[in-house]
Design a protein that fits this description.
8 helices, single chain, globular
């Protein structure tokens, strides 16, 4: 029960890494607030948690909306009294050459992947700073925030921004014992991974072998294991750091 007594807020929790992490957090004793733009999917996540004996609340949530962030943060405090963990997981992805990226696509990418993370930190970290034990924020970046790749200008820009925002916030809130770290997965067996295989016209097995020395995509469980470590007190001296989950891809 590595998260016993803690309240966790996870965005993009209707599927993939967000859902798997929410279920894992609940298994480890956390009360979990799950949010997603798709209310049906996140309601199912909450139902799965409660069916397994955990405690969860679900909210429809546009992470690019400041009003939504205010509403959910207020609801969390009213219902549970604290927010101990924030996993800024929600995000979108596309692969496109620079010349083909529309301004509306660029703005949407940044509004969700960057503004969504900023607003989460803005409205949750001051709450954590007032708590005796502080809190832990985990921001979902990507190896695209560390290395370059063709067709990834918009996505890489958004994930690079998340990386440096994480460091800035970590420095600002360190004295309040609010830790902020970023995770940097490579391709994972999720809908985004499926999309990448379609665009590259390679199978997951082929793309995994080409991308990573370990020769495969990662699993959502492998990512959630890292997020769990950063959410728990086991990572109490970690802040402002990048945690890479990439099968060795960034080592090449």
């Amino acid at each position: 029960m590595r998260l016993e007594g803690k309240v966790a807020l996870i965005t993009g929790a209707g599927a993939g890494i967000g859902k798997t992490t929410a279920l894992r957090f609940a298994q480890e004793g956390a009360t979990v607030i799950v949010t997603d733009i798709n209310l049906d999917s996140v309601n199912q996540t909450a139902a799965d948690i409660e069916q397994a004996g955990g405690t969860a609340s679900a909210f429809k949530h546009d992470v690019s909306s400041e009003d939504d962030w205010k509403r959910i943060a207020d609801a969390a405090i009213t219902q549970y009294g604290s927010i101990d963990i924030l996993f800024n997981n929600a995000g979108i992805y596309f692969i496109k050459p620079i010349a083909e990226i529309g301004l509306d696509e660029w703005n949407r990418m940044l509004s969700i992947n960057v503004t969504g993370v900023f607003l989460g930190m803005k409205h949750v970290m001051p709450i954590m700073a007032k708590q005796p034990k502080g809190g832990s924020v985990i921001n979902a970046s990507s190896i695209a925030g560390l290395t370059g790749a063709s067709g990834h200008v918009a996505y890489g820009a958004s994930k690079g921004a998340v990386r440096i925002m994480t460091k800035d916030a970590a420095v600002e809130f360190a004295s309040a014992n609010v830790r902020v770290n970023s995770i940097h997965p490579a391709y994972i067996n999720t809908a985004m991974g499926d999309y990448a295989t379609q665009v590259t016209q390679m199978s997951a097995a082929e793309l995994g072998k080409r991308m990573a020395p370990m020769g495969r995509f990662g699993t959502v469980e492998e990512v959630s294991n890292m997020v769990l470590f950063l959410a728990s007190d086991e990572s109490s001296y970690c802040t402002g750091a990048e945690f890479v989950i990439d099968g060795g891809a960034t080592s090449m």
